[in-house]
Specification:
With 282 residues, this protein is an alpha/beta fold. It has one domain: Glycoside hydrolase/deacetylase (TIM Barrel), CATH 3.20.20.370. Strands 1, 2, 3, 10 and 11 form a five-stranded parallel beta sheet that branches. Helix 2 runs parallel beside helix 9, helix 6 packs across helix 7 and helix 6 crosses helix 9. The longest helix has 15 residues. The two termini are 30 Å apart.
């Protein structure tokens, strides 16, 4: 069985930034370092994009695509976690994606993983081939989840009318179900996090989660994020690019081949996947 690693970048306005920027794309130092790490490892990036940004940041997206292997996918239209995959969001994101790329989107990732039965139904209705929104782990809080019953590998969501899509869950470290993400590597520190990856491993298709602000969160001035949440997101912020470099190096050393999520989707079509019925989705 092939081992595929997908580097995903959930591109939205920097969290808590009163200036409403995407500094990874706007700051030459950040952008050049990101590009250098991707190309150093021969990686490919799937950018789950808040599609309203195509209008304001489209030229920057195209410039980035000229420097690294990059594909676009949908990350909602407005990044509203309260209406993450509403019908309006699905339709607006699909239209904006088509207007920008000239193609229909293959996949979607809901903000903060806020996918539900209705949202999956809208994705099925509109012809999406994959979703990448389920966290097979635990998180407390307003937008929390408890999904230890979900697989840590791709599975199929099928509806009785014959329509289906493949779900790529947010990859977690096996057994301990800690999300495979730059933010979690920063939170735990590289020593502890890398040990967990080494001891427990990752599934055969691994999606590495990152956001632009993960690379420089502590440098966002006057952030609206305060208290413990700010402390957690800012932890090891100055080491973020080094940790990202380490994560990609770890994947290479574990014999993963870098792939777009679209390529992982096509590979998953050839596999026998577990089926989940949309009608009984919880």
């Amino acid at each position: 069985m092939n081992k595929l690693a997908c580097i995903t970048l959930d591109t939205e306005l920097d969290y808590g930034d009163p200036e409403k920027r995407v500094r990874l794309l706007e700051t030459p130092e950040f952008l050049e370092r990101y590009i250098a790490i991707i190309n150093k490892h021969g990686a490919k990036v799937t950018m789950f994009t808040v599609t309203s940004l195509f209008e304001s940041h489209g030229e920057r997206f195209r410039q980035l695509a000229g420097h690294i292997p990059l594909e676009f996918s949908v990350h909602s239209h407005t990044h509203d976690p309260h209406h993450a995959c509403s019908l309006d969001e699905v339709e607006a994101s699909q239209k904006a994606f088509r207007d920008f790329t000239g193609e229909s989107p293959l996949g979607c990732r809901a903000p903060i993983g806020r996918i539900d039965k209705a949202g999956l139904g809208y994705l099925l209705d509109h012809g999406f081939a994959y979703d990448a929104s389920v966290y097979p782990s635990i998180r407390p809080g307003e937008f929390g989840y408890f999904n230890l019953h979900m697989p840590n590998i791709p599975f199929r969501v099928a509806r009785s009318d014959g329509r289906s899509l493949i779900e790529f869950p947010f990859t977690s470290i096996e057994k301990v179900r800690i999300v495979f993400a730059l933010s979690y590597a920063k939170l735990f520190g590289w020593g502890v996090y890398s040990l967990l990856v080494k001891l427990f491993g990752l599934p055969y298709i691994a999606l590495l989660l990152s956001h632009p602000y993960d690379f420089y969160f502590a440098e966002i001035p006057d952030s609206a994020v305060k208290g413990l949440e700010h402390a957690a997101l800012a932890r090891n912020s100055k080491r973020a690019f080094d940790y990202f470099d380490n994560l990609l190096d770890t994947l290479k050393k574990q014999d993963y081949e870098f792939a777009f999520v679209s390529e992982a989707y096509r590979y998953a079509l050839s596999l026998k996947l577990e089926d989940f019925a949309w009608e009984t989705w919880k």
